[in-house]
Design goal:
With about 170 residues, the chain is an alpha+beta fold. It contains four helices and eight strands. The protein folds into two domains: about 80 residues, 2-Layer Sandwich (Alpha-Beta Plaits), CATH 3.30.70.260; about 80 residues, ACT domain (Alpha-Beta Plaits, 2-Layer Sandwich), CATH 3.30.70. It has a four-stranded antiparallel beta sheet with strand order 2-3-1-4, covered by helices on one side. Strands 6-7-5-8 form a four-stranded antiparallel beta sheet, covered by helices on one side. It is flat, with a radius of gyration of 19 Å. It holds the Pfam family ACT_6.
Length: about 170
Amino acid sequence: MNNVLIVSVIGPDRSGLVEQLAATIAAKNGNWLESSFSRLAGQFSGIVKVAVIGAGEEVLLALQQIAGLDIRGVLDVEREETALVSQSVALSLIGHDRVGIVKDVATILARFAVNIEKLETWLSSGAMSGEMMFHAQLILSAPLDVDLDQVHRQLECIADDLMVEWAD
């Protein structure tokens, strides 16, 4: 088993941040495994999974020295995958934007014990009306016995105009 350090990063965006993170991790013999980063409202934010030697304090302390970033870490032991008890499904949503839409979607998914593994949302101007349209792409982990048709019906009840599509 490998020790892994899960690091969250947030701070003002600037050129070269990923290079600084990668160089710091490599200098401390960490191995960059997985990551996801975004720029939102001028802020750089994301998460990276790093294989580390020992407890990983050296890697975390070195990362925390990068100016202008709030960096936090959690050490975990990477476990081998257990028997498949869930299915991975992709979901796409489009509808008129309104307050509480993400809460409503998350509530329905939680009701069916469906875990959100990845969530990307954005707004766009409607082609015909110019009204703001809400878009979401989700990767979900659902119990094998969950009725995805029932989940679909419940999601469609959130709003008359919400388009719900399971992706392949």
